Amino acid sequence: DLAHSDSLAGSGEEDDVDATTAKSIYMVSDGTGWTAEHSVNVALGQFEHCLVDRGCAVNTHLFSGIDDVEQLVEIVKQAAKEGALLVYTLADPSMAEASKSACKLWSVPSIDVLGPITEAIASHLSVSPSGLPRGAPGRNSLTEEYFRRIEAIEFTIKQDDGALPDNLNKADIVLVGVSRTGKTPLSIYLAQMGYKVANVPIVMGIEVPRTLFQVGPGKIFGLTINPVVLQTIRKARAKSLGFHGEVKSNYSEMDYIREELEYVGKIFAQNPSWPVIEVTGKAIEETAAVVLRLYHDRKQKHCMPRISKRY
Amino acid sequence: DLAHSDSLAGSGEEDDVDATTAKSIYMVSDGTGWTAEHSVNVALGQFEHCLVDRGCAVNTHLFSGIDDVEQLVEIVKQAAKEGALLVYTLADPSMAEASKSACKLWSVPSIDVLGPITEAIASHLSVSPSGLPRGAPGRNSLTEEYFRRIEAIEFTIKQDDGALPDNLNKADIVLVGVSRTGKTPLSIYLAQMGYKVANVPIVMGIEVPRTLFQVGPGKIFGLTINPVVLQTIRKARAKSLGFHGEVKSNYSEMDYIREELEYVGKIFAQNPSWPVIEVTGKAIEETAAVVLRLYHDRKQKHCMPRISKRY
Ligand SMILES: Nc1ncnc2c1ncn2[C@@H]1O[C@H](COP(=O)(O)O)[C@@H](O)[C@H]1O
Ligand SMILES: Nc1ncnc2c1ncn2[C@@H]1O[C@H](COP(=O)(O)O)[C@@H](O)[C@H]1O
Ligand SMILES: [Mg+2]
Ligand SMILES: [Mg+2]
Asked: What pLDDT does residue B299 have?
């Protein structure tokens, strides 16, 4: 989340003045590498205080689909040259072992992200892990979950921004809020997790679709935000749209924003069964966590909110 | 990926016959819990052989936003009662320590997902971790990355399914393929990572938008798929649409599918600079990994394909 990726900008880090002082982290996976990358990302969250002012600088390098020892050793050698830390997820125990011993040989500090949790689960289940990486042949990728996820994504795209209000009752989750409270990215994030999401923008002077009040209980969530933060986001939005007339002229004026938030606040007050979530300062995945905690909570009678799944 | 979640179906696992034999995994985080859940998910991939035939069964329970010791101890006690494994990510070292000792006290097997990688990075950078969880106050969530990601998602939604062909040149990545090769979910997955993606469906008898041939080099990716698998997906699609006339009658006929794949194959052959990715048997995130590996590869002159970022 704190990442300033140069990957889109396309500037090679080699040309950069920082390159000499920045520390490298190599990430190696026999699969997609997303697990290693995600783990490094959240762990780097613990070093935000020194990353923001570039008191420390980090370059990460992701190597995915690494399934033979030769490639692996090549990467470890390169990591040694760069003085990098190596983070790996390798399902095949002989590959994990090879990584460990190559790192020892070339004095590369390393950490196994998959091994410890796999071992913990293995002894918990009293079952040996397969040792087969993600891409191993013979797997059936056309699972029920695959189809459900795709359906959820397609549904969510079609419902975006108040389109097809007649379909609101088909959604698992309905998000309600004024423009720029993050309804669209939040909808998409939840859709990826398999939930059909609809979002309904609240705009002063435009009537709320009546079908919203026919949606089943526990599905609707209101989003609210601090007006000053909302103004910042709307100004950025208006700028990126280049004033093409797509946005109202008073869209990012503070008086208008306050009035609009009051208007939506009244609607929320009239519908006390809709939980209202404060999104100020929250990343999309954080708001998603709050939504899903509440969504699953109403279905169960546990003392502590939890999200349960069966495998 | 192998998950059969009951969370949407809404059936409480308590009512289930499996509940007595299934092993529980508790996941606890002071943040969203997505890291713990993701780690458990990929690790469970190593037990697919016994999960598919329910030779072993697993129930997971996610507790997110756990930021005080009392809640934590409550969860550990509950885990002890259920004989669960506890997987945790707790940024505050005193919380992590409390988790560890409570687990020891109540004989709950446990594993710390965040601690080891944070320590490895700490000693690599010679910087102490902040110990502050994700939701700690004072963070600025309105980063450049936040805005870029939202812009990418909104762009991608608008371009979906060949809409706005005049905007193709504004995309970072353009996906080309016949219907049901997973262009939409793949586009959305990449959009979440900050890439503006457009996708162009190839349909026999409908001309390919000419703007596609004006897109810069290295941006276009062809998707291809095994015809038998495609037929399975299309049949499922036709079924879920309920034959509402939205799909052509020959849409999932094998002759038509073969002809269409031949047609797109010719287009790919005429454009040898477009990498063609076989999506058969691949999960969306796996195809995404291949696309991004190729996408970043053309920008650099390394012996081994890598994706580099700067923090
Ligand atoms: N469904 C799965 N089956 C087996 N192994 C998996 C599965 N998903 C992920 N893995 C393994 O988990 C690690 C992380 O995966 P990835 O995030 O794709 O790099 C890799 O070692 C993968 O091989
Ligand atoms: N940006 C961040 N800053 C600080 N800690 C973080 C950040 N992102 C994630 N974490 C921590 O990493 C762990 C996993 O996060 P989560 O996936 O939200 O459960 C939790 O302990 C979070 O508190
Ligand atoms: Mg948000
Ligand atoms: Mg796919």
From this structure: 65
| CA torsion through residues A79, A83, A84, A86, sign | positive
Residue whose token pair is 């309804």: A183
Task: Please say whether the beta carbons of A183 and A137 come within 8 A.
Answer: no
- What's the CA gap between B241 and A119, in Å, rounded? 43
Nearest-Cα distance to chain A for B215, in Å, is 16
Closest atom of ligand 1 to CA, residue B286: 18
- The whole-number pLDDT of residue A1 equals 35
pTM above 0.80, yes or no: yes
Structure token digits, residue B135: 């939701």
Alpha helices (runs of H) in chain A, residue ranges in sequence order:
34-44, 48-51, 69-82, 93-105, 115-125, 144-159, 183-192, 227-240, 254-270, 284-297
Q: Tens digits of per-residue pLDDT, A158-192?
A: 999 999 999 999 999 999 999 999 999 999 999 99
pLDDT of residue B137: 82
ipTM of this complex = 0.93
Instruction: Provide the β-strand partners of residue A202.
Output: A178
**Count of residues for chain B?**
311
Q: What integer is the mean pLDDT of A17-38?
A: 89
- List, for residues B296-309, the tens digit of each pLDDT value: 987 666 667 888 88
Give exposure, B72-88, as e/b (b: 16+ Cβ within 10 Å). Answer: bbbbbebbbebebbbbb
CA of A10: which chain B residue's CA is closest?
Answer: B299
Determine the distance separating the centroid of ligand 3 and the alpha carbon of A253, expressed in angstroms.
Answer: 21
Q: Give me the residue label for tokens 């924003």.
A: A257
Residue pair B200/B162 in contact by the 8 Å Cβ criterion: yes
Diameter over CA atoms, chain A: 70
- pLDDT at site A3: 39
- CA atoms lying within 13 Å on the CB side of residue A146: 21
Six token digits for residue A128: 């040996």
Residue A200 and residue A175 in contact, taking contact as beta carbons nearer than 8 Å: yes
DSSP-assigned states of every residue in A234-288: HHHHHHHTTT-S-S-TTTT-HHHHHHHHHHHHHHHHH-TTS-EEE-TT--HHHHH
> What local confidence, expressed as pLDDT, does residue B14 receive?
43
Q: Indicate yes or no: CB of A91 within 8 angstroms of CB of B311.
A: no
Confidence of residue B21 (pLDDT cuts 50, 70, 90): confident
Closest CB to A150: pick one of B185, B282, B309.
Answer: B185
